[in-house]
Amino acid sequence: MKRAVALNSNSALAHQNLGVVYFEAGRFKEATESLKIAVSLDPTSAAAHSALGVVYLNRCEYKSAQRVLEKAVALDPNDPRTQYHLGVVYLVLKRKDKFWQQHAVVKSLDSDLAQHLLQALNQENLLVVSSQTSPRHLADSKRKD
C-alpha cells in the first residue's frame, strides 16, 4: 500500500486503503493521517469519511467521529455500516434521541446491523460492540480516482 501511495500521492483511494491497513495493524495515528489525506484529496468520498470516522470512534474521539460520520452519511445515506457507526457514536455520547433515530435508519437498511446496534445498548463496553466496528469493508470501495 505504501508503494501505491508513493506511485500516486494524489490518489485518495490509495491513501484510504493505506489508512485501513494501518487501522487493522493497530496503528491508529498513521491511519488517521492517511485517511485525513484521503478526505482532503476527495472531499466527496463517503467511504474515506466513514473510514476516518471509524478510526476516531476506536480512538475514543467521539466528537470527531460524530462530525466525520455525519458528513459520510450526508454523502451516502444508503451505507448501512456508516449509519451503524454513527448510531454507536450517538450511544457513546448518550444522545439517546439521536441513537433511536439512527437505529430506525439502520433497521431500514440492514436488519442484522440494527440488531447489533440494539445489542450495543446492552453492552457495558461500547467499543467492543461487534466486529462491525472496522473500516475494512471500505478498502474495497468502488471509487474512481
Q: What keyword list fits this structure?
A:
Serine Threonine Protein Phosphatase 5, Tetratricopeptide repeat, 0% strand, globular, disordered C terminus, mainly alpha, 145 residues
Write the layout of secondary structure elements.
Blueprint: H1 2-7, H2 12-24, H3 28-41, H4 46-58, H5 62-75, H6 80-92, H7 96-109, H8 111-121
Helix pairs in contact: 2-3, 2-4, 3-4, 4-5, 4-6, 5-6, 6-7, 6-8, 7-8
The CATH homologous superfamily corresponds to: Tetratricopeptide repeat domain
User: What top-tier CATH class fits best?
Assistant: Mainly Alpha
Overall strand count: 0
Shape: globular
Helical amount among residues, as a percent range? 55-70%
SSE class = mainly alpha
Give the domain tally: 1
Largest sheet: none
Q: Return Rg in Å.
A: 15 Å
Q: Note the run of SSEs as H and E.
A: HHHHHHHH
Q: Unreliable stretches, pLDDT < 50, 5 or more residues?
A: 124-132, 141-145
**First and last CA, distance:** 15 Å
**Structure annotation, total helices:** 8
CATH topology: Serine Threonine Protein Phosphatase 5, Tetratricopeptide repeat
% residues in beta strands: under 5%
Task: Kindly report the average pLDDT value.
Answer: 85
Instruction: Supply the CATH architecture.
Output: Alpha Horseshoe
What does this molecule look like?
With 145 residues, the chain is an all-alpha fold. It has one domain: Serine Threonine Protein Phosphatase 5, Tetratricopeptide repeat. Helix content is 68%, strand content 0%. It is built from eight helices and no strands. The longest helix has 14 residues. The chain starts with a helix and ends in a 24-residue tail after the last helix.
